[in-house]
Fold this sequence. Notes:
Radius of gyration: 17 Å
CATH superfamily: Endonuclease/exonuclease/phosphatase
CATH topology: Deoxyribonuclease I, Chain A
CATH class: Alpha Beta
Amino acid sequence: MPRIVTYNVNGIKARLERLVEYLDEQKPDIICLQELKSSDETLPIREIEAAGYRGIWHGQKGFNGVAVLSRGEPPVERQRGLEGDPEDAHSRYIEVEIGDLVVASIYLPNGNPQPGPKFDYKLKWMDRLADRARMLLAEERPVVLAGDYNVIPNDDDTFSVRAMIEDALMQPESRQRYRTLLTQGWTDSLRTRFPAGGVWTFWDYQAGAWQRDAGFRIDHLLLSPMAADRMTGAGVDKEYRGREKASDHAPTWVTLR
Length: 257
């Protein structure tokens, strides 16, 4: 029963101890990482391999960066980056095959401040993701699109609508594009498991957000119909957010038959 995790590590070198600890304790079969903030040359690949994982990496110096690691069969790369913008040099998308599964690790643009060029880039990027997602659905395979989407899909996915109302993560245009993915036929695994909301995956470092449980849900694992048919559970490993020098995101997971 594969357990597939998405985890924005917020700097893989700064969080290496926490990441290895998580791999050691939870032993996920597949883990999608975001915000590596490291060039390919300086990634701590040796330490990850020593923990029993092999990966496909797509680094970038200082910011962005995504990877997919697996404990059993090594991942085979299918695509890095999204089509539709030859000028886009950001490392935000990597897609692999592991056994019969197709898995993508996604780090969607934040989009703040909005309105402005960063928000425009976010929306265009989401359109490109939707194009790729449509192509993946046409393959009729079990596919998992896992990552930090930087979208709060519903009002009950945040501790405070008022606090987030101006944020790019919660704008109608961001939400509408997220819903576009769902209407293609993707299943939001965490939402399916917790339909009433109130489940967070991110707590800011500022203003005692973790201590107040003032979080929101932006890390999502979307499942193609064939993957959704195999889903047996989904959740957030929340306690890892409370550890010393933790990422501001908690590992978020789905299990498939």
